[in-house]
Amino acid sequence: MARLQVQAAEAAGEEQTLKAETSSRRAKIEESKQLTTRAYKEKLAAAKRSVHSTATVRIRLPDGVILQGCFGAREQVSELFHFVTDALRLPLPFELFAAAAKVPLADTEAGRPRTFASASLAPSTLLYLKWSDKNDQEPVPVLRQELMQNAQSLIG
């Protein structure tokens, strides 16, 4: 008898979960059917982005080392470029790319400074550093010696 009650409670819990998922899906479908302007959709996306107050950015360097920094979501992306430049052993020109992006990350948009939130870098992102010059003489290691001494292994 107790086993039947446990099974009935589990079934009721599963039923509530299914109902919640179904109503969530219906709401998403209804939302997608609505005709809305691009400005309104951007406003909704901005509202979702503004929830995050910090941005954790990891930059994979050409030598495989990952540089990590934490920034405020409202800070300007130019701070990220200063952070990376200060960490490099030699101040060579570089570009930052998102994983699937073919266009480098820009610190301004239409002449206005971009924030981490407006660049969709909050709450976290992984970027790749690529040297702007096509020369094969990359410094190994890429980071300054002081930073390499304090490096932590991410493996085991």
Q: What does it look like?
A:
The chain has 156 residues and is of the alpha+beta class. It folds into 2 domains: 2-49; 54-149, Ubiquitin-like (UB roll), CATH 3.10.20. Helix content is 38%, strand content 20%. The chain contains 4 helices and 6 strands, in the order ααββαββββα. It has a 4-stranded mixed beta sheet with strand order 2-1-6-3, with helices on one face. A two-stranded antiparallel ribbon has the order 4-5. The longest helix has 32 residues, at 2-33.
Keywords:
156 residues; alpha+beta; UBX domain-containing protein; UBX_dom
Please outline the helices and strands.
Layout: H1 2-33, H2 38-49, E1 54-60, E2 66-72, H3 78-87, E3 94-98, E4 108-109, E5 112-113, E6 124-131, H4 145-149
Parallel strand pairs: 1-6
Antiparallel strand pairs: 1-2, 3-6, 4-5
